[in-house]
């Protein structure tokens, strides 16, 4: 089924909406996706919703448990490695080679400052949201719909990882410190330095996640 006038299947649209809800933290790891209620909420048929579930399962965002139903996935070590392999390639490259205008630099600084404020308030949800917003700016500078679509998938997966680290404030602090450093290096006209600094943030974050998930 295709949504009239848009050329996007109803299943793809439903999957995109569920992805957005996961990325926004409204569907945490282990949350059960109840088919009847969710189909009504998204205004799609149950068959269409099942197609959306299949797509999200392929991305590692949901899992079907026999005789129990469909649940938002609980991240595993392999998920961390898969996600960070993509992030290490995409985000430092955007910093090194992207052409940031003054408005985008201002936006990066704004998200860095908001993340610091959220940290002072102990607001982990706020820290996670600002990190996602920071990532979004990095990908938008590429001007590619393909990259933006891929980043949407990565952000949903990252939100599940953030939620799994809700009791580890030091993990979120890695990103807050990285935001500030990257913004300062870009302001100083050092994009390659910013790219290297962000690679270090990603490496440290991956190591912390793996330590937590394999403990």
UniProtKB/TrEMBL annotation:
Lineage: Bacteria, Bacillati, Actinomycetota, Actinomycetes, Micrococcales
Protein name: HTH gntR-type domain-containing protein
Gene3D superfamilies: GntR ligand-binding domain-like, Winged helix-like DNA-binding domain superfamily/Winged helix DNA-binding domain
Coiled-coil annotated residue ranges, if any: none
GO molecular function terms attached to this record: DNA binding; DNA-binding transcription factor activity
Any one Pfam family match given in the protein's UniProt record, by short name: GntR
SMART domains tied to this protein: HTH_GNTR (SM00345)
Keyword annotations of the record: DNA-binding, Transcription, Transcription regulation
Keyword DNA-binding carried by entry: yes
Boundaries of every HTH gntR-type domain copy: 8-75
Source superkingdom: Bacteria
């Amino acid at each position: 089924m295709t949504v009239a006038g848009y050329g996007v299947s109803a299943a793809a649209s439903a999957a995109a909406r569920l992805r957005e809800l996961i990325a926004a933290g409204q569907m945490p790891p282990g949350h059960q996706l109840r088919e009847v209620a969710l189909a009504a909420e998204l205004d799609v048929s149950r068959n269409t919703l099942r197609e959306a579930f299949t797509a999200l399962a392929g991305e590692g965002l949901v899992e079907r448990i026999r005789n129990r139903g469909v649940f938002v996935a609980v991240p595993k070590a392999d998920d961390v490695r898969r996600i960070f392999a993509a992030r290490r390639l995409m985000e430092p490259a955007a910093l090194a080679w992207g052409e940031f205008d003054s408005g985008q630099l201002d936006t990066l600084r704004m998200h860095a400052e908001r993340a610091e404020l959220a940290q002072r308030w102990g607001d982990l949800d706020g820290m996670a949201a600002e990190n996602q917003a920071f990532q979004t700016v990095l990908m938008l500078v590429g001007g590619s719909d393909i990259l933006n679509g891929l980043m949407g998938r990565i952000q949903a997966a990252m939100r599940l990882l953030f939620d799994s680290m809700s009791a580890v404030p030091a993990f979120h602090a890695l990103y807050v410190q990285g935001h500030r450093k990257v913004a300062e290096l870009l302001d100083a006209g050092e994009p390659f330095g910013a790219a290297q600094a962000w690679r270090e943030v990603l490496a440290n974050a991956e190591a912390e996640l793996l330590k937590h998930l394999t403990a």
